[in-house]
Amino acid sequence: MTPKRTMTEEKPRAILCIGPNPAFQTTLYFEHFKVGQVNRARNKTTSIGGKGQNFVLATEQYGFQDKVTLLQILGGSTGQALETSLRERGFHLVNVYSEKTTRSCTTVLDDESGNMTEMIEPSERLNDDEVQHFEEVGKCLLRNGSDELLGIALCGTYPPGVTGESFANILSAKPKESIFLLDAYKDVTKILDTGKVDVMKINREELNTLIESHHGSSLDSNDVPSNARKFFELYQVGNLAITDGPEKAYLFSNNHREYHTFEIPTLSSILSNDLTKPLQINPLGAGDTCSAVFLCEYTKSKDVVASFQHGLAAASASCLVLHQTAQFDIEVMKLMLKSIKVQKSSF
């Protein structure tokens, strides 16, 4: 892929997803994976990877594809393969091209245990010119979107050379009424300090890591309301959405003394699965699916609680699709949505 300047006259659609660290995804399937031994896969698939890329795949599944633009950084043969695949599926892309090759990632799925192991290749460092150009394109998209840009999502890690300050600079052009969802936790302090984050979506472990980096001491990971209060003491963020895989999820609002707990049923109970056999699942991309459906619903309904519930239901349903990330059965999602128990509490 030959690096070139991206035209910045592009106008984003209603939702702009910034996915700075895409990946060419390979998934290997084993009947029984044994650590430290030679393992022969029974099957192999390749697909689109990266949190932002999974986000837009989920919007396609949810019927919002024509409302979404993806801003990403691509390079090399893997970047070309990703661009071709995304364009063939009809996504609106704004690409910043790099001399560095887009990373590859490998997922290992074990049939016997149902476990997933993810191996992530390091990304190469972008040079200063590439980073500056990425910032310029991002700011232009936000300015060009103006009042028609309803939602913005920043998803995942950054390639080396890109920093939280890069995104804080991009956010300087954020339209006032756009909802900004942050689905990242590394090097996000300067982004959070802008005061422009409407929703911070993070898992429980990431939240603890983020707060501990400021307090310098360990937290009680089970006291989620206390940790949410500590977060709001540090940052002016509108809403804090906390996930924990298949366990309870939480939603806290900065301006209220109440929060919501979401109790998620097991997929086996929803599907009436044979409990003598482990249910085969692939949770890769589930969190990205949650973010996508959450933001799509929120820009439409402005109901943050119901929107998060929709996102959690879609995330659970996506775990049943083994061969692709961020894909889910709408009917399974609807079953999950009806079965998630939501409770309001004070903190």
TrEMBL record:
Domain Carbohydrate kinase PfkB residues, every copy: 30-320
Superkingdom classification of source: Eukaryota
Stored Gene3D superfamilies: 3.40.1190.20
Electron transport recorded as keyword: no
Bilayer-spanning residue ranges: none
Record flagged with keyword Phosphoprotein: no
Keyword line: ATP-binding, Kinase, Nucleotide-binding, Transferase
Coiled coil: none
Family: Belongs to the carbohydrate kinase PfkB family.
Protein name: Carbohydrate kinase PfkB domain-containing protein
The organism of origin for this protein: Basidiobolus ranarum
